[in-house]
Amino acid sequence: MSISKFARSIALICSLSPLTAIAASSGSCNYHGTKIAVIDGIAYHKPVFDKLQPAIALASVKLDTAKIAASGDSDKALREQVSNLQDGLVQLSLSDRGVDDIRGYFPDAHSVQDNALMYPDKRIGELKLARSDAKGIAGSFTLKASKPDDLSCDLKFDLSYSGFHTKD
Fold first, then answer.
1. pTM tops 0.85
2. Where are the domains of the chain?
């Protein structure tokens, strides 16, 4: 089969297949010398002061979005999927200002949180959005550590919203 016939065959197959949203996550976070290498992520909505805000969760393991959505307590189900002592999870709560809350769950039971909700002038890292619409969110987040053991992150994501939201 010639390359052009092969290319036309692939194009025909793709045109007959339903479109699927692509979810991509990469990067890492470090805390106290422990690294989370991100391989999967989900985007969802989280209630903040009676308003749903976008949020993303990036994990070192493949996430089962359907199981999380069906759980009744999405936050708990999300953390249960990364409960192995070698797994990790980073959650970012977003607003018009950028990242309002970051939570990191690291291997060997280390965890860290930083919150800017009550501090109008406080910024957590640098969020750059390439896309933020009703279908999903894409961009990058960088957080530089001020001390060697502080939390640092360099993350990229392109995620469709998962159709669920957390309780709080």
1. no
2. 21-165
Q: What is the dihedral of CA 150, 64, 25, 161, to 10 degrees?
A: -110
User: DSSP character for 71?
Assistant: S
**DSSP letter string over 106-167?**
EGGGEEEEEE-TT-TT---SEEEEEEESSSEEEEEEEE--SSTTS-EEEEEEEEEEEEEE--
- Alpha carbons within 13 A on the beta-carbon side of 10: 7
Percent of the chain at pLDDT > 90 equals 48
Nearest to 84 by CA among 54, 62, 112, 116: 62
- Torsions phi, psi of 107, nearest 5? -55, 155
